[in-house]
Queue: 2 jobs
Job 1
Amino acid sequence: MSSSNAYREPEWRSLEWSPDEKKVARKAFDAALQDELALVMRKAKAMAEKARKPSDLWNLENYLTKCRTEIDRRYDYRYSVLPEVFGGLLRERKLTQADFSGLGEDKIEWIRRLAS
Amino acid sequence: MSSSNAYREPEWRSLEWSPDEKKVARKAFDAALQDELALVMRKAKAMAEKARKPSDLWNLENYLTKCRTEIDRRYDYRYSVLPEVFGGLLRERKLTQADFSGLGEDKIEWIRRLAS
């Protein structure tokens, strides 16, 4: 295999994050995660309250398992994957461009690209 | 291996159940299962109502998974395992001797033995 075919790490994986950028990133990340968890909380409480038959309980169980797995998978705060994570959250309107204010143009550009 | 060492099916696995006994068995079985499910329903609703933090949700998920698995495992209505099932339910006071009234002495004796 020639070296030109070798795996090349995507550029956004090795961006340098300044201490100020890390603060912005952490704040945006935590806000999205809190929103997500609050939504699961509301929906789970409503499902439990409305539950009448056993299948309603197993649907609730299934919903919680799905949310937990999905949240574990998506909310990964390693800087090497953060542009991807933020891109996904931007695409789904769980974060807006305003949440990234304070990040360098290199990050914002990658987040936008990965969102689209 | 001599035939005297060969596996011998426990005697209570091949009891004959009359139509009337089957009705008694079904009624006791369903009553215990309904009680069990009602308890899970009450407890799950209370857990959801009290939930404040994400870990409360995952505890609820875990509780539901445990209950579903355990109920699937225990509530097995095959006549070949019913004396065991009833023995377990009697041991845990989820059924009483009165629930077995109408079963033949052979079944009641096995249920008692398997309960102890």
Job 2
Amino acid sequence: MNIVIIGGVAAGAKAAAKIKRLLPDANVAIYTDDTHVSYSSCGLPYYIEGNFTDYKSLLVRSVEEFNASGIEVYLETRVDKILVPQQQVLVCNKDEARLVKYDKLIIATGARPFIPNIKGVKDFSNIYTVRKIEDGINIREKMLKSKRAVIIGSGFIGLELLEAFVKNGLEVEVIERNERIMSSFDPDMSKLIQERLETIEPRSFNFHTNETVSEFIGTNGEVNFVKTASGKEFETDLVLLSSGIVPNSEIAADAGIEIGESGAIKANKLMQTSVPNIFACGDCCEEPHLISGHSVWVPLGSTANKEGRCAALNAAGVYTVFEGVLGSAVSRCLNTTMSMTGLTEIEAEKFGFTPVSAIVTKNDMVSYMPEAGSMTLKVIADKVTGLLLGGQAIGALGADKRINSLASALVGRLTVREFGKNDFTYSPPYSTTIDPLLDAMSILCSKIPRHC
Amino acid sequence: MNIVIIGGVAAGAKAAAKIKRLLPDANVAIYTDDTHVSYSSCGLPYYIEGNFTDYKSLLVRSVEEFNASGIEVYLETRVDKILVPQQQVLVCNKDEARLVKYDKLIIATGARPFIPNIKGVKDFSNIYTVRKIEDGINIREKMLKSKRAVIIGSGFIGLELLEAFVKNGLEVEVIERNERIMSSFDPDMSKLIQERLETIEPRSFNFHTNETVSEFIGTNGEVNFVKTASGKEFETDLVLLSSGIVPNSEIAADAGIEIGESGAIKANKLMQTSVPNIFACGDCCEEPHLISGHSVWVPLGSTANKEGRCAALNAAGVYTVFEGVLGSAVSRCLNTTMSMTGLTEIEAEKFGFTPVSAIVTKNDMVSYMPEAGSMTLKVIADKVTGLLLGGQAIGALGADKRINSLASALVGRLTVREFGKNDFTYSPPYSTTIDPLLDAMSILCSKIPRHC
């Protein structure tokens, strides 16, 4: 039995390890065009920031470990084509091309940074994206010699790199095409994130929203100036492109595998694609949303791991279902935790709910504790049924705790009123007497008809 | 309409404020034998430790604030008797006794420290309990002049004071009658708490389990030595008694109000006692356990607040139900968070479940993050139904987050398998890729029949 896995960062690495344990006699091989396998891409911002000095900390399993457990790993080896009728893949490295037979194929090709079409974007060596190990190493090396940086895009990755750059003493300009930063949050919460970050003093960064980059200008192969459509010009030593990612789904599309509306691969809850014996998992494929029921593309490391495991189990003949995602996510930028789960108010409306929401701002613990910090919670429910739909929390470190409590309630399909029964832990270093999440739910409850 | 409230720390203070808002024309009066009203008793250990210097930070609402909103507060005024047929209470202060008429009476008398019957326990001025504002002030004052302390009892309060004393440079001996510290946890978890605390270096404290105090020996009105039944003798500058609390339910019992098996007042979900027009709330009364359905006595500040609110609403004629508690609790001792919700394995057995459990020890965040710390999670389910029953988490700060995620699932009556769908936030400073709670649930799932 030949198991071929394309890609080996999170989903692919997990799938390989799992399937080899399930089918010890199978030939399991990972093909990846990357120079590394099985690493924490999510940890790159923290490596760049300098939380730890050896990038090898990011490696989960080494090639040697894979080999020792009987898994072949082919680095810098690209799979160029899937030949469906023949159950073969065409693999190429710099020396040779060959055809490899598969009984089960697992596509875990991940995603890649979106490169905006800006004049000069391909001409300079100090324009970076952050996705692979080399990216981290290169950015850190350059950052340590830099005084100024421009970050294009202000989503999770953009703001994580903002923290890294600011903590390393750089002056940073963040340029965002949208009218607000962190646009995966609802507008009211995005606004608060920006306001909160802008209270930091001294502050060595600026946000420029509603602003697009028109041109990179440089000398000797390096960008020195970033020009915007509105005529601003920022001097810089390096540029980070963080304006989103795109799924590596072309090879699947080329093989006739069904692709979702998002551009990522469509897989069912067994991680099977539309083509027999071909599975997909991780950042290259869509997943069902547990609240809306719709297929969504939420490429995250935690999901990739679960999907990799699920694909491996089903490829090995062990029936297993991956139910879907809530879209739970968290990120830290300087003094601010940004965390969310379920649907935003905007998404809820789009999916046909009648969202109603409540917002509270409170300390995450009793105010006399020196570590107490402010946070803002937004909770969202459906006015027709009273069902909880989602929430967002920003601010102090403890914000994330409330989002995970909410995630469990979303999985349990609780109504706001049912959630009100909740009994959270209380002690001054951990919470206020009545947890802020319960306060938010009380307000939300008053906006829901009594029969729900 | 005369509303009389006996006791004004948490439940009583909350009830008073709430009912005055609901019934602005009613006469609302709080009678308390305490010198203070409306304060955070839970914050006393952190005041003693020195997290803040002004004890007034512990006060939630001052007498003046109560008065300004039209609520009378009688400090150092004891209610000695409830005259049920006459709907009156007998109140006494040092100068006078008088009878006060009530239309609705709310008993919020709280609890008091249990004083073990040890030779000399009443003879010395440096033997303390921690419950009231003066206790905190007195202990802190004495602690700052002390080198050694003995703590008797190793529950939440004992260990919180251990932290306070150790952080202030004292050598501390903790004496525990049971075979293990923190016996509200399951034995395996208690053991881990002790082991974890004992890894601290340098360590200026010792635990002595299976040990009872036989005598206090002192001179000039101060204890100098604590003698144990096994013949040990500890020199000390102060003694803290923290061997539990007892409900102040005598006045209710005396009035013929039904008392529960725990010794606390029995109230229904509207916080009504067995006598019309008399409500009870807070640490003096029992509450239903959301998992077992049984009446339990879990005296905690968060519950007191909720019950005070519920009592006020029903006393004012607004039908409101307090559904009960999960027994969620958290405490910090030095480097260790100790947190729990739902039933322990021991309680689960007692209540007729067939508990099965899983334990995992993992970091609370990705190990390459400098703040990462180890934690141990125990999750418990019923083998017959697959329903989650409870959990305990000890270790790094992030332990508490997992317990609150579990609390939401308990409120939703989720099975282990349903919980497995959960989608928690992930980012290196907040979690491991697959949250430790999901790992624990995977193991637990393998112990539950497939049809559950």
